Amino acid sequence: MITELVANAVDHGRLPSIRVIVSRPYVNGVRVGVVDRSRTLPTLRVDAGDDRLRGRGLVLVDALTQEWGTELYRWGKQVWAELKEDDA
Fold it and tell me: Residue 88 — very low, low, confident or very high, per pLDDT cuts 50/70/90?
């Protein structure tokens, strides 16, 4: 999941560096965010029958995480994803 978020930021960001943020907003979970300078919102592609080698990163992020989203900033954005352990 983190490699897909970082790869998207590298591909679409406008600077040679990005920022990775890892936080623990829940006792049973972690949030990973990748910040870049692009304000272009990511889109989840749903054309599963497509044979393209690229463009399916967010499909993987969506499948592997409980939730993901985007926070826009004046100068860019953060795309984040959350992993949570189920309450037993």
Answer: very low
* Full domain range(s) for residue 32: 2-84
For residue 75, what is the domain's CATH number? 3.30.565.10
Q: In total, how many domains does the chain have? A: 1
Q: What is the pLDDT of residues 13-53, one digit of tens each?
A: 877 889 999 999 989 999 999 999 999 999 887 765 556 66
Q: Across-strand partners of 79? A: 34, 70
Torsion of CA 29, 10, 41, 33, to 10 degrees: 20
Asked if 9 contacts 18 with a C-beta cutoff of 8 angstroms, the reply is yes
Question: Which strands, in side-by-side order, build the sheet including 19-26?
Answer: 19-26, 29-36, 76-84, 67-73
